[in-house]
Amino acid sequence: MAETIKTNAPAWAEASAMAGADMRVNLCGIELANPVMPASGTFGYGMEYRELYDLNLLGAIVTKSVTLEPRYGNELPRIAECTSGMLNSIGLQNPGIEHYMSEDIPMLRKHYHGPIVSNVSEFSVEGYAEAVGKLNSLDDISMFEINISCPNVHHGGSSFGADPALAEEITRACRKSTDKPLFMKLTPNVTSISEIAKACEAGGADGISLINNFKAMRIDLKTRKTITSEKYAGLSGPAIRPIAMRMVNEVYHAVKLPIIGIGGIQTADDVLEMIMAGASAIEVGSANLIDPWVCPQIIEDLPKRMVELGITNLNEIRGVV
Amino acid sequence: MDREVSRIIENRQLAGGIYKMTLETKECKFSRPGQFAMIGVEGKFLRRPISVCEYDSDRYTIIYKVVGEGTDILSRMLPGEKVNSITGCGNGYDVDAIPDGAYLVAGGIGIPPMLGLMKALVMQGKNANLVLGFNSKNDFFLIEEFRNICGNIDILTADGSNGRKGFVTDAFAHADYACACGPTGMLKALDSKVSRGQFSLEARMGCGFGACMGCSINTLEGPMRVCKEGPVFDKEIIEWQKL
Ligand SMILES: Cc1cc2nc3c(=O)[nH]c(=O)nc-3n(C[C@H](O)[C@H](O)[C@H](O)COP(=O)(O)OP(=O)(O)OC[C@H]3O[C@@H](n4cnc5c(N)ncnc54)[C@H](O)[C@@H]3O)c2cc1C
Ligand SMILES: Cc1cc2nc3c(=O)[nH]c(=O)nc-3n(C[C@H](O)[C@H](O)[C@H](O)COP(=O)(O)O)c2cc1C
Ligand code: FES
User: Fold this and answer.
1) Measured between CB atoms, which of B205, B209, B217 is closest to A48?
2) Are B239 and B67 in contact (CB under 8 A)?
3) Same domain, B107 and B151
4) What pTM, to 2 d.p., does this model score?
5) pLDDT tens sequence across A214-228
6) Domain count, chain B
């Protein structure tokens, strides 16, 4: 139970390291007390979860995609369910970069002292560069995750992440705007994910985050219309985890960059499996929505499972397959 | 808001397809009528939002209609079995803001939260005019419970099988203040007949606690989440034509 762990993350991580299970990871020079971070879009800007547990338990926090202008997003319904997962068509609803910089990040910082990963979405190469340039001035942002993979917008979004040349160009443009660690977040809706990852590597990325949602669809038999107002929506949850595992592994063997593994993670065992596939750290997405205490639960369970499985530190299992 | 694993005290059918479930709670997290719980259903990924009908310190009641697989599974659960839920979700009715003599208008499965609201008004010594709409006499539920606490009840049935024939919007020409819960179409029709009030909206939800933006609506005061700023809203701020 989340209530039983009251220590902050570094102290907790050190204690478990002493006990023979070191869950600390280093991501491009940034020390994470553990590899667990909430995924963009499932954690808002932290405020809903702050009321539930001490955010300082988390390895890092990835904030909801921000765009230069405020966005309402798509019409309702935006949510559908399927076996072992869910579909969403939020459409990048966010208050815009000004509000994000002046309100959301300072508010999060009041309650959370660890690394903040800023997830950025835009609709053109110049837009990405401009957004990253603006955000780069905030000391509170430790790292960037560039979303070139949102399936829920008609312009840009996922199509950027499906074209190696464009992916490289966006990476290069963002690279010029920041010296902070730059992770490119990839879409799984491509034929060869390692090709896109290589393009990002060539463009100067420091790491790769994968995966975002799969393009998917559900139809209501009675109305004969799709359940979400957008015809195609993004599939996430345990249903996609084995595919995410395979894609992380492919990318692990294709590039030399560290990987943040994302897709269907719900337990400490899922985390260890993703690290074995090649991830350096992981993000928990949809699982937060159905169990808002899942991240601290995983962080509490992780060292125990490591001891049981004879894992003394996460580096020794990374990419064993 | 908190997560709970609650023991089922009772789960029984009230009318065709409509069930009442009473759940034990260690510490009640509900503070207003009109709030809801996110009910976990074995084998289903998402939780189901269901309004709290009544609550007190050690138990709460939900009344739900079987409309799909999740509610069907729920209806087969037995007393003693456990339900994993997140309770105390959302913003309910502001009871203090409701004037004496207001209308409470509810249709179908929007009726249950009105029982908790009516009781809260009675506690404050306020009267209300209750308007309940059903499809037919066979769908009646909670009528006795309402009669025990409220003298002014107007019941309408769509097929005229009992009470007046018609819809809840036929009950009055105009109301200064009304609280409402029911299908979106009903709320829209009601909007023009009511000057001020608090209406409870529905939306498909991912989380139920404000994290995913799955339930966001446009209002005159900007985007708001049905699960967090709602489900009960001042009806004046809703952009009804956009729902
Ligand atoms: C704030 C709120 C309060 C509610 N209170 C009640 C109540 O007191 N009693 C009651 O019977 N029903 C209530 N509902 C509706 C109830 O949530 C749905 O009937 C229920 O989720 C259907 O689940 P299912 O698995 O049987 O249906 P399925 O159609 O199999 O469900 C599939 C998915 O769609 C969602 N869904 C389907 N219909 C609705 C709907 N009308 N609203 C929201 N989500 C839906 C489900 O939650 C699930 O995620 C409420 C809804 C909201 C938003
Ligand atoms: C409701 C919802 C909203 C999301 N919003 C974003 C977003 O704004 N930006 C982004 O990069 N990814 C977004 N994602 C994708 C997740 O960050 C994650 O990559 C994906 O859901 C797979 O992980 P999961 O299976 O653990 O959910 C969203 C996912 C969900 C479910
Ligand atoms: S359902 Fe997630 S924000 Fe309302």
Assistant:
1) B209
2) no
3) yes
4) 0.96
5) 999 999 999 999 999
6) 3
